[in-house]
UniProtKB/TrEMBL annotation:
Gene3D superfamilies in the record: 3.40.630.30
Domain of life where this protein originates: Bacteria
InterPro entries: Acyl_CoA_acyltransferase (IPR016181)
Protein name as annotated: N-acetyltransferase
Organism of this sequence: Streptomyces spinosisporus
């Protein structure tokens, strides 16, 4: 293998790192990419993670360089050990994301480079002497988290390095807004649009004023100043049907009302997330114009030697 260097990220790596990240984003969600500014900002802090980001006490970004090309990169987080930190994160080390070019005829040594970089990540965890070692694939782009099934090369790296999937699996679905159910008049049904916890909320009420359910759609999946290319993309933050209204098809009415609003917002694609085990919820979305985009495996853990 020609000269390979594993070293800390330098600012002049920014364009190559962004290209490497966008290649992985593009394999997960169509039409999304991030800017250099987005990547650089994410290396410093993650303001959208307003609960966990304040718990981080140290951040390290490492790259593997070969023939002046950045062929692999990883971003590591160290969480404080204080009582104010959530138990899962307390005194933990985490690979926030790890990306590397897959094996190709013109990149015959990329797996060796990835292994060398992973060894450096594990060595950093050892120097930090963290209680637990986690790994993820949370790139600074919408919809990309966990370890997507579209990255078999990263999965293989995690597994041969001793990481094991210990969490759940989520299905990520996508629909063209044009394919969502069309609004259907229904006597005694009205909707109210309000601010929700995870986006704009549409609540369905019967003629007696009782809430039947609600849907929340988020049309701001990235911070505007970060210039991510996500135009036309939104996601479902919440879809809830009251217990007494189950089985009456209210989900389709709510999706139809959300679709009307999204068209006014010039949004043409809608993302939904469901537990991979919830076949009922997945089938409902598939029947309402969605298709499965990918599955992602959340929470990977590495056994610390001697513990």
């Amino acid at each position: 293998m020609s000269a390979l260097t594993v070293r800390p990220f330098r600012r002049d790596d920014r364009d190559q790192l962004t290209e490497l990240i966008n290649a992985h984003v593009a394999a997960v969600v169509p039409g999304v990419s991030v800017s250099v500014n987005t990547v650089l900002s994410e290396l410093e802090r993650q303001p959208e993670e307003f609960i966990t980001d304040p718990w981080v006490c140290e951040r390290v970004t490492l790259v593997a360089e070969q023939r002046r090309a950045v062929v692999a990169a990883a971003h590591l987080l160290r969480y404080r050990g204080g009582e104010e930190v959530g138990e899962t994160y307390r005194d933990a080390g985490e690979i926030d994301w790890f990306v590397h070019w897959p094996l190709a005829s013109f990149r015959p040594d990329t797996e060796a480079a990835a292994d060398r970089l992973m060894a450096a990540c594990l060595a950093q965890f050892a120097r930090w002497d963290v209680r637990v070692r986690h790994a993820d694939g949370a790139l600074p782009a919408p919809v990309v988290y966990g370890l997507p099934r579209n990255w078999p090369h990263v999965r293989a790296l995690y597994e041969r390095s001793g990481f094991r999937h210990t969490g759940d699996t989520e299905a990520i679905l996508i629909a063209r807004v044009a394919d969502l159910p069309a609004p259907e008049p229904r006597a005694g049904l009205r909707f109210a649009r309000t601010v929700g916890e995870c986006g704009t909320r549409f609540t369905a009420y019967d003629d007696g004023g009782a809430a039947l359910g609600f849907i929340e759609v988020d049309t701001s999946l990235s911070r505007p100043e970060r210039h991510a290319r996500t135009a036309g993309l939104a996601d479902i933050g919440n879809l809830h049907i009251e217990r007494a209204a189950h089985g009456q098809g209210w989900e389709r009415h709510l999706l139809a009302r959300a679709g009307e609003w999204l068209r006014l917002c010039d949004v043409d694609r809608l993302i939904a997330y469901e537990s991979g085990d919830d076949t009922g919820a997945i089938d409902l979305l598939l029947g309402a114009g969605f298709r499965e985009l990918t599955r992602t495996d959340r929470r990977w853990e590495h056994q610390i030697p001697g513990r």
